[in-house]
Fold this sequence. Notes:
Blueprint: H1 3-17, E1 23-34, E2 37-48, E3 52-56, H2 63-69, E4 80-88, E5 91-92, H3 100-106, E6 107-110, H4 121-131, H5 138-151, H6 155-158, H7 171-183, E7 189-193, H8 201-214, E8 219-223, H9 227-233, E9 236-241, E10 244-250, H10 251-256, H11 261-267
Parallel strand pairs: 3-8, 3-9, 6-7, 7-8
Antiparallel strand pairs: 1-2, 1-4, 4-5, 9-10
Helix pairs in contact: 1-9, 4-5, 4-7, 5-7, 7-8
The structure holds adenosine-5'-triphosphate.
Amino acid sequence: MNMLAEAAVEDAINRDSARTETVKMQASGVNVFYGEKQALFDVDLAVRKNQVTALIGPSGCGKSTFLRCLNRMNDTIDICRVTGSITLDGEDIYDPKIDVVELRARVGMVFQKPNPFPKSIYENVAYGPRIHGLASSRSELDAIIETSLQKAGLWNEVKDRLNEPGTGLSGGQQQRLCIARAIAVSPEVILMDEPCSALDPIATARVEELIDELRENYTIVIVTHSMQQAARVSQRTAMFHLGRLVEEGPTGKMFTNPEDKRTQDYVTGRFG
Ligand SMILES: Nc1ncnc2c1ncn2[C@@H]1O[C@H](COP(=O)(O)OP(=O)(O)OP(=O)(O)O)[C@@H](O)[C@H]1O
């Protein structure tokens, strides 16, 4: 590890020591199948409130599949079948009486590639609050838009051009717009699938800072291929390999003194 990564790991160790730990989401015995092929095997994982949990592991190990289980995005894939249980504040999210639209408002998602709608900056953020009926007047909606863009660290850059297309922003700004869009419906958990992979280092640093700020109000689960990023932004790290959860623990420990050799090899760049 280079010195920057070591410093980030040390930071993570310090952050770990001052933490209260409430479980926000709990996966128990989760299996996922795509048709006949099993992609996840018996995964047990607790996602802690107001912490960033990083999912790491070599390509194809099931990180995105697991992430998508947390807000039932896998429901949109016909051949996908999920067994086991996942709870949000103790409530089973796969219970047939759960309203999936409402679940996805509580557990929002930010994707790998910034994907603003082909609409104005304002309309991108207004979309969710409108469909969920969160504002009863234009001024209430305006307030939600401003707060969401502020929380996403984008307000100052866009406040004078809210009616311009979201797609006209830079890649990093577009990703922060997508984060604002996720925040606008007041989620409790935000899932991020490699949110910086399409961004340059400066835009990446800005989004990483933002993730750290957002943790105060939200619970975050992030899939990342970057060990430095996992060390910089997360308090907990979960290592996956071939569809199994190898181990999960405080990020500092996972990077300095993991229990499993596969984690050791992966975080030190020996495979993956
Ligand atoms: N829609 C799908 N249909 C069929 N198989 C899928 C589908 N999505 C994922 N898989 C398979 O499930 C396994 C896990 O994939 P997944 O994308 O969750 O891994 P990952 O760890 O996120 O990979 P990467 O780091 O490359 O994004 C892989 O074998 C993959 O081919």
